[in-house]
Amino acid sequence: MTTQKELDANSVIALVNLHQGNLSAVAKRLGCARGTLYSFISKHATCQKALKDARETLLDGVESILYNAALSGEPWAVTLVLKAQGRSRGYATRTEITGADGGPLEQVAMTLEEWRRNRRSRRNEVLKTLSFFEDDDENLLEERN
Questions:
Q1: Contact predicate 54/17, CB 8 Å
Q2: N or C: which end of the chain has fewer CB within 10 A?
């Protein structure tokens, strides 16, 4: 196994570029453990920059493929682009719940007995409303007869 002392920055940079930032492939080619390679790169700014640049280049290429697939009408690509880039236009899968006028939600803590009392009170209000309509319906029926 190759050790950190046996590695040189120029070889690492060349392989990072060749393998587009895939450090597993670079480590295998160098004959060292991935951990050894990670440690070496963390100590060499030029290797860190090369790794970042290689991964950015890879990402640019993949984005181009995605862009072309979306323009070709591939449903998976269209969906991904809209979810990632179309949020400002309302294309999102996440739903946010807010309080009144977009403010924070109001948290209400109550005991079980308070909850039961509130439920009974609301039920009674609903029953009163329903009885009002029932009385109105009976009056209408009487008027029609």
A1: yes
A2: C
Where are the chain's structural domains? 4-90, 110-144
3-state secondary structure 38-52: HHHHHCCHHHHHHHH
Among the four given CATH numbers 3.30.1360, 1.10.10, 1.10.3480, 3.90.580, the one describing domain 4-90: 1.10.10
26 in Cβ contact with 1 (< 8 Å): no
Contact 17, 51 (CB under 8 A): no
Residues 42-67: tens digit of each pLDDT: 999 999 999 999 999 999 999 999 99
- Report residue 29 as tokens: 């080619």
Cβ 50 vs Cβ 17: under 8 Å: yes
pLDDT 10s digits, 109-126: 889 999 899 999 999 888
